## 1
Amino acid sequence: MEFRCLSTTLSDAGALPEAWQGDSLAVGLFSDPNHPLWAQITALLGPKLPALLEQCRFKGKPGDSLTVQQLETRPSTVILVGLGEAAGFDSAALRNAAASCAKAAASAGSRSLALALPWQGLDPQAAAATMAEAVRLGLYVDLRFRSEHEAKPVPELVTLLGLPEPSQLPLQSIDAVCAGVELARQLVAAPPNLLTPGDMASTAATIATDFGLDLKVLERSDCEALGMGAYLAVAQGSELPPKFIHLTYRPSEAATRRVALVGKGLTFDSGGYNLKVAGSQIDKMKYDMGGSAAVLGALRAIAQIRPAGVEVHAIVASCENMISGGAVHPGDILTASNGKTIEINNTDAEGRLTLADALVYAAKLELDAIVDLATLTGACVIALGEEIAGLWSSSDGLAAALVAAAEAGDEALWRMPLRSSYKEGIKSQLADLKNTGPRPGGSITAALFLQDFVPKELAWAHLDIAGTVWSEKARGQDPAGATGFGVRTLVNWISAGAPS
Ligand code: BES
Ligand code: MN
Ligand code: ZN
């Protein structure tokens, strides 16, 4: 798929720019019928348009979409999508509109599509990138597991109208970000029999070879030598060997910032002896490696973009949480790699155990900041739903930078409290701490547990993406299923110099 920009718009007479010769045109319309775009599109489509819009109940609301196909005219396909009220139109609305245009165009069999969408109030470069990403990510399909995989054709050329010329689309970084999101979606959607900890390590190895990154994979014995008792306790019930992945991007010139991205990498979470019951989404727990998928997707994008000045470490303590005669018991006490002892009062709170050793390992790398991403708690899904990830941070600067990075990619984060009095909930009678507290505030005690494994002076943030990593229904540019959440936030944060 190729992207281009043309500065010309649909003129007041509704004529199409001469320079554009494609077959399909998609136009966004605000719900206010007095908006000048309505006159332009009526001039283009002729006086019968109002009756057709009436018949199809197209009112310009978000989600409204109408495709008109005529044989003799150019363009032969005209797609109208609703944008809602002009006052509330923002980057996220533009992204959704561009994705619906792309989907309608693909359904209509378009090969060459022009998008005429407004971007008032937004930076033109950013608006162009948003539209291009939405088109590509909106047309993503995953046919890997079908016996017949014939993909529907998608537009080969996409022209964005009305952007200032010479508008240099940042094509390289758009492609890199989309490829990163696509990789994360593929990893999250892959079933647990076909995506094991070993496959996570192979994925990291492929990124390392393709882009010249350094990769270290620690085997079980290496992790034992480092005293990673928390991580290995989770892994011990599985037939599959754990893989501790450390992938590093180094900029071409000297790095002035060094950061780690730590991702939860449970390729399946049965709950262990605190087995997940009906209604607890056990059949979805392949996506419990969503944090590590975001981290690997981001590293792939970063390795392609090659931002200057920032060294980025991706760290994933990958394993499965299973049941067997050798599995960890509820009640076991183990020692993490920083020497802290943990009483496991619930084997289903396994993510924080794997992250504890991953965070201790990361902190030894002399970093400026650590960001971890994890499908950590059902409590976060209850609090924030499917569209917003929880953010906990010891640093106001890092929290603000991550919120800004997320916003720039139309991903939503909401800062949550690291209230230290709640640590009371994870005190153990016997060990230094236990791995779960009371149900109320469960995502907060989970974050407080992680904080115990990060040095106080190090800027650290935790993103609980349990709700956002998967979507029951297709929404905007995201298909039903794996969303690839987190990649754009991480890439934007690193590209901004990873401020904290
Ligand atoms: N992977 C789950 C969290 C999860 C639940 C993600 C639902 C997505 C949807 C995690 O390992 C887990 O099981 N957490 C427990 C913690 C509890 C035992 C304190 C939970 O949230 O129920
Ligand atoms: Mn669990
Ligand atoms: Zn889990």
## 2
Amino acid sequence: MTITITAFERSPDRGKGLARDMRVRWALEEVGQPYDVRLVSFAEMKEPAHRALHPFGQIPTYEEGDLALFESGAIIFHLAERHAGLLPDDANGRARAIAWMFAALNTVEPPIFDCSLVQIFERDEPWYEKRLRAIDESIRKRLADLSRRLGDADWLDGAFSAGDLLMITVLLRLKASSNILDDYPNLAAYVARGEARPAYQRAFDAQLAVFNAASTG
Ligand code: GTB
């Protein structure tokens, strides 16, 4: 059955792969599932047709037969459950990998995403510097703990899993906007290991091709 996801027609990140369709593309590449992409404009995302797929009028969405999903984490969990390669076979290992998926989205991503929002929307506010320092502190707290737990391991818990995929896409956002990861060399190397995966490269190239086509078209 054909899988169709949605992505920005023109991603504001100019092809850096920071929008959340990138993690879904990566997961699809890891499990070897071909997919189509429907590109949507900001206006189209808010239309009833798109809202029927995504109640919050966002990307990414996922369609496969009569299944429509939203939320990148749920989409990746769905793929990981149905195809080999993103979750371990043993029940306990699987549960731990799922815990890392939640940790990426629920514990590590919020301060990192907040930081981008503050940098975009609060730059001219009198509290800007103070707020930025507070967020930087929250991010560093998470990174220090994550770095300690990862130690010298390649991945968070045994073999590469959907937990690593999500954690790496979350950390990649930092790499695009600051040098903070340099202070945690094992996390920088962890992110680089993720980026070096052939599935990541294919996904990255595919989203970059969208940006390049929109720029030349
Ligand atoms: N929790 C949802 C998920 O994980 O799927 C969040 C989805 C989401 O935030 N979607 C964003 C969106 O559709 C795109 S990814 N925004 C449009 C809107 O809300 O109207 C967030 C994003 C946007 C831009 C950049 N960038 O330019 O670097 C990076 C990430």
